[in-house]
Amino acid sequence: RCAAARTVSSTSSSESPAPVNSNPPDLSNPRAALQAAGLVETLKGPGPFTVFAPTDAAFDKLPSGKLDSLLKPENKTELASILNYHVVSGRNSAADVGKWQTAKTVNGQAAPIKLEGSKVFIGGAEVSKADIGCSNGVIHGIDRVIMPAASINKQ
Question: pTM of the entire structure?
Fold first, then answer.
């Protein structure tokens, strides 16, 4: 399973192919968002996926009320679009991603990539926890929620 999907439901240590806490405490907002968007099963699929997962602190940086609004059933499409903007096909390390100019996301839009020294940024968000492995991909924790073009206008 993908690390992002693994954060949604508890797993036994035998299901975790990498030395990573299967339910990181700073990823409860992404878990709730994946569930609300109906993307859990997708990320449990064969992949491989590279997921740029905003931490809880990243979700806290959203405008007041934005996360609550996105989690409402009537906003499922917008939420899915935003979350898919955090997913790239393939298993890509942070070092690999740092060599790119953009990342084509599952959402269909390209997210800009920037390398500053040894720090990798996607859509302006810094990769703060890199290369958390899983059986069908890799997860990189990021310090803010990145928004696709259509969603920026709705903030």
Answer: 0.81
Strand pairing category for 102-104 and 87-89: unpaired
Residue type at 105 in one-letter notation: T
Those residues with Cβ within 8 angstroms of residue 70's Cβ, 6 or more apart along the chain or in another chain: 33, 36, 78, 79, 82
Backbone angles phi, psi at 41, to 5 degrees: -65, -35
- Kindly give, in sequence order, each residue whose CB lies less than 8 Å from that of residue 14, ignoring residues fewer than 6 positions away: none
Amino acid at site 146: I
- Single-letter amino acid code for the residue at 90: G
Residue 72: left if φ>0, alpha if ψ -120 to 50, beta else—which one? Answer: beta
| Tens-digit pLDDT profile for residues 1-46 | 554 544 433 333 333 223 233 445 476 777 889 999 988 888 888 8
